[in-house]
Specification:
Number of strands of chain B: 8
Strand content of chain A: under 5%
Radius of gyration of chain B: 19 Å
Distance between the termini of chain A: 49 Å
Helix content of chain B: 40-55%
Largest interface: A-B, 23 and 28 residues
Mean pLDDT of chain B: 88
Largest sheet of chain B: 6 strands, mixed
Helix content of chain A: over 70%
Distance between the termini of chain B: 45 Å
Oligomer: heterodimer
Structural class of chain B: alpha/beta
Mean pLDDT of chain A: 93
Number of helices of chain B: 12
Low-confidence stretches of chain B: none
Low-confidence stretches of chain A: none
Strand content of chain B: 5-15%
Order of helices and strands of chain A: HHHHHHHHH
Largest sheet of chain A: none
Radius of gyration of chain A: 20 Å
Number of helices of chain A: 9
Number of strands of chain A: 0
Shape of chain B: globular
């Protein structure tokens, strides 16, 4: 494992790049998925339409989608972040809609009954109660995005995929492992972190 | 008023005038339309025909959120917000009405005492840490926090055991007497209706069968249905015959 010891700094940089790719995509994805998920929870028709559309996008192989995007917007981080954000939509929207639908009817009835407007109901009651479940969806999306973000290595976006890509190209197994092992560890760490946050959130919302 | 897919109106042609300050019970079996009727008052249900007046005002012309903030609402499932403490739950309506913080805080302590809970012990607890009876006490405190003129209660004590129910019934009578609130109370429990009501409105299949004081209903049931409803409780029947005897003497 001489590659690991001699390139430690480089691996660190790639890991940070990887995290940056994933979290910028996640932030964009959440900003889009939250209103979509809320709308899907309110209107049944919209829910089936948007989930069908996102399901199709989700089914496109991410590498193919990336290739198409690179053709139009060029190499670098941008096409990767877009692919990740699109891929996360299906997971997040479906999860947010389900989380909101799972809020107890008695608490909704009470929220309407005390005279909350629909916006107050959403922010003060529905979203706080749905939060732990939404966090579970964010965890699933994050783990998936950490894996898919390795594709960034093919299109010059950096991240741990770069080591995997160049290692494969040069048939240099150690370099490939220097990308794939940290990527796997990153996914495991993210999973554990979000699980801990979920436990904390569950305790908070149920008292 | 008819629900989608139903073959009859849930509430049909009911005319009911509830005197201010009265404790009125809507009584009938499940599916008779009593909850639906109750929910037309705070516009959780909008009638397909007819109107509901609160005082001089048609509720259909009022802003629903403002209307509801002036009407207390207690349901069987309680519906306390599980992510908020007891104090935060009680503070909901005062906060929606933009009360000053200090006034709200004082009111919370006052209300907890009124419903028989120690403020110091219960304020910071979460609903999950309370018994069913305690939860419903908090539910009542939340409903009356902003001193509403009207209190709607939909089978509020249906989910607690008989002993706790009895205690809660006595407390609610005491509370509404001190507040002089107009109460509309839904139940299918005849005994509960007799214990609480100034007036009872008996509903059957969406229609109003009889509306009168408990005494007069017992003395002169309007139909065989009403007689049967009250006869289901042997004690009540004894009570009724005794009363009838006393009146004839």
């Amino acid at each position: 494992m001489s590659y690991l010891t001699t390139h430690l700094g480089e691996i660190g940089t790639l890991t940070l790049q990887h995290v940056a790719l994933v979290f910028s995509a996640l932030a964009i994805a959440l900003a889009i998925a939250l209103p979509l998920g809320i709308a899907a929870a309110r209107w049944r028709r919209f829910s089936s339409a948007i989930l069908a559309l996102l399901g199709i996008l989700y089914a496109i192989p991410s590498l193919a989608l990336l290739a198409v995007l690179v053709r139009y917007i060029g190499l670098g981080a941008a096409p990767v972040v877009i692919v990740l954000a699109i891929y996360a939509q299906f997971i997040l929207v479906r999860n947010i809609a389900a989380a909101l639908a799972g809020v107890s009817p008695a608490q909704i009835d009470a929220a309407v009954g005390v005279g909350m407007s629909s916006r107050q109901r959403l922010w003060r009651v529905e979203l706080p109660l749905a939060f732990p479940v939404i966090l579970g969806g964010v965890r699933l999306a994050t783990v998936a995005l950490i894996a898919i973000a390795t594709l960034g290595g093919y299109v010059g976006a950096g991240g741990l995929g770069a080591d995997i890509f160049f290692g494969l190209q040069r048939r240099y197994v150690e370099q490939t492992l220097a990308g794939s092992i940290p990527a796997a560890l990153l996914a495991i760490a993210a999973d554990a972190l979000f699980r801990a946050l979920e436990r904390l959130a569950v305790r908070r919302t149920t008292g | 008023m008819r629900y989608p897919g139903a073959d009859r109106n849930a509430v049909d042609g009911v005319t009911l005038e509830v005197p201010a300050g009265n404790f009125t019970v809507l009584l009938g079996p499940s599916g008779c339309g009593k909850s639906t009727l109750l929910r037309t008052v705070n516009r959780l249900v909008i009638p397909s025909a007819g109107a509901v007046f609160v005082g001089e005002r048609n509720v259909a012309e009022l802003e629903p959120t403002a209307l509801r903030r002036g009407i207390g609402y207690v349901i069987q499932a309680v519906g306390l917000f599980s992510h908020m403490t007891v104090a935060q739950n009680i503070a909901i309506v005062p906060e929606l009405l933009h009360w000053e913080r200090e006034r709200t805080r004082k009111r919370i302590d006052e209300l907890l005492e009124l419903v028989g809970l120690d403020a110091a012990r219960y304020s910071a607890r979460y609903p999950r840490q309370l018994s069913g009876g305690e939860q419903q006490r908090v539910g009542v405190a939340r409903a009356i926090a902003a001193e509403p003129g009207i209190l709607l209660m939909d089978e509020p004590f249906g989910a607690v055991d008989a002993i706790v129910r009895r205690a809660l019934q006595e407390e609610i009578l005491r509370i509404v007497r001190t507040l002089e609130t107009t109460v509309l109370f839904v139940t299918h429990d005849v005994e509960e209706a007799l214990r609480l009501a100034d007036r009872i409105a008996i509903l059957r299949e969406g229609k109003l069968v009889q509306y009168d004081t408990p005494d007069r209903i017992l003395a002169a049931p309007a139909s065989a249905y009403v007689r049967q409803l009250f006869a289901l409780e042997p004690d009540i029947e004894k009570f009724a015959t005794l009363r009838a005897k006393l009146e004839t003497q």
